[in-house]
Amino acid sequence: MSNERLSREEVLEALKAIRDPDLGRDIVSLGFVTLEDVALCGDRVKVTITLTTPACPVRDEMRRQAEEILRSLPGIAHAEVEMRAQVRSTGFRGPRPVEGVRNLIAVASNKGGVGKSTVAVNLALTLRDFGARVGLLDADLTGPNVPTMLGLPPGFQADRGLSIVERYGIKVVSLGFLLPPGTAVIWRGPMIGTGVRQLLHDIPWGEDGELDYLVVDLPPGTSDASMSLAQDATVTGVVIVTTPNLVSIEDALKAVSLFERLHVPIFGVIENMSYFICPHCEGRVEIFGHGRVQEVCREAGLDYLGAIPLDPRVREGADQGVPIVEADPHSLVAQAIRAIAQKVAAKASIQHFAVQAPSGERG
Question: What is the DSSP letter of 148?
Answer without folding.
Answer: H
